[in-house]
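Hi P.,

Sorry for the delay on this. The queue was packed all week, but I finally got your sequence through. Input first:
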Amino acid sequence: MLIKRFIGPWSSTSWVTTQTAFMQAFGFLLFAIQAPLLGPRPFGLMSIIMIFAGFVELVLGECATETLISIPHTEPEHFSAMTTLCALASILFGAGIFAAAVPIARWFGEPQLVAVSRCMAVLPILSVIAAPANAACKRDMRFRPLAIRTIVSLIAGGVVGVALTLLNYGVWALVWQVITQKGLAAIMLWRATPLPFRFGSSMRHLRQFPALALPLFVSRCMSWTSGSVPRFILGTFLGANDLGVMSLALRLSDIAVQVFLVPRYTVARVALRQYTADRIGLTEAIDRLAFRYAVLSFPACLGGAAVMPTLFHTWLDPRWYPGIVPAQMLMLTCIPYVTIYTVGALLMSQSEQRAEAWLETIQTIGAVLAVCIAAPFGLMASAAAVGARPFALLALPLMTAKKRCGIRARQILKPQMPPLAAAIVMGVLVALMQSALRPHLNGLVLLSVLIAAGAAIYAVMVALEFPHVAARVVGGHIATKKPRTRKVREP
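Then the structure:
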C-alpha cells in the first residue's frame, strides 16, 4: 500500500522517463561488465545481425503501435486484426533471416554469423507480437505497465547475459540476453493490459489501417534505414571489430537521446493533440517542450563529450580507446536532435504523418550518403560524417514546422539558447579541469569529480547568468499542461 501510495500520482512523463532512464543506465551497466570481458568483436557481430532481426520491431512494431494510436475511435476488432498482421509479418521475416544466414555470414566474412542468425530468427515474433497491447496502454496514457515490463525484462535478460559472459560464452551471452528480455517483455505486457490476446481478420477494420499505416511505414522504414544501412556499410568496410567500436560510440549518444528526448516525445506526441484548434496554446506548448528538452539534454551531451576520455579509461581496456573521439563527436548530435524531436512530436500530434515521413526520408538519404562517402576512409571519418549529418539538415524540420503547423523557427530555437550557452561554458570548463587534474587523479575518482563539477557549474550558470531560466526549471510546466480557456486567434 505504501508503494502504491508513493508511485500512484506519477505522471505519464515520469513513468516514461523512469523506464527510459533505467533502460539506458542498466544497459550501460551491463556493457561496463561485459565489454572488458568480451571485447569489441561480439558487439560488432550483434550489431550486424540486429540490422536484419531488428527490422520488424523498429518498423512493423512501431508502425502497428502508432497506427492503432492514430485511429480516432478503436474497437476490440482493431487490436485483434493488428495482432494477426503482426504475427504473420514477424513469422515471415523470421523465416527470411533463418534462410539468409549463410549469405549474411559470407558477405561479412564472419562464419559465426550463420548460427547466430538462425538463433536470432525467433526475435521478430518476440519483439512485435505485443505491439497491440503496447498501443492500448499508450492510448489510455497508461505508461506504468510499459515501464514495469521493461524494467523487469531488462533485469532478467541482464542476469542471463552476465552469467553467460562470466562462463565465457562469447557472443552467445548477448544473443540469449536479448531473447530472454524480448520474450519476457511480450508475456508481461499482454498480462498487464485488459486487452485480450486474440487473432481476428475483420475486413471492415483492416480497411482503416492503410491510410494511417502507409506514411508511418515509410517514416519508420526511413528511420530504420538511417540506422541500419550505415551499420551495414560500416560493417562491410571496417569489419566486426571496428563496427563494435563505432556501435559503442553510437550507443553512448543514443543513451542521451533515449533518456532526455524520447520520454517527452512519447508523451507530447499524444498530449499535444489537445491544441489542434488552439494555435496560441500550441505555440506556448512547443516553447515549453523545446525548453524542457534543452535544459537537461544540452549539459548531458556537452558534459558527456568533455569527460569521454576519462570515462573510456575508467571502464574499458585499450581495445576500445579508438572510440573516444568518435563518441565525443556523436554526443554533440543531441544539440540538433532537440529541434528534430520537438518538430517530430508537433507533426505527429497534428496528424501530419506524411510530413514526418518526408523528413525521415531526407534524414535517411543524408545518413546513407554520409556513410557511403566516409566509410572507405576509416572509423574517424565515418564518425565525423555521421555526426555532421543532423546539423547539416537542421533547416528542414524547421521549415516543415512553419509550413505545416505555423510554428516559426524562432519559436523552437529561442527557448534552447540560454541552456545551450550555459552548457557550452560548462563543457569547456570541465575539459580544462580534466586536463589539469589528470596528473593527480585518475579512474573513478577523476570521473566523479568531473561529473560533480560539471553539474555544479551548470547549476550556477543557470541560476546566476540566466535567472529567468532557473525560474522556469523550478516552476515551469511540460507540454501536457491543460490548455488555457481563451478565445483562439491566429498568431
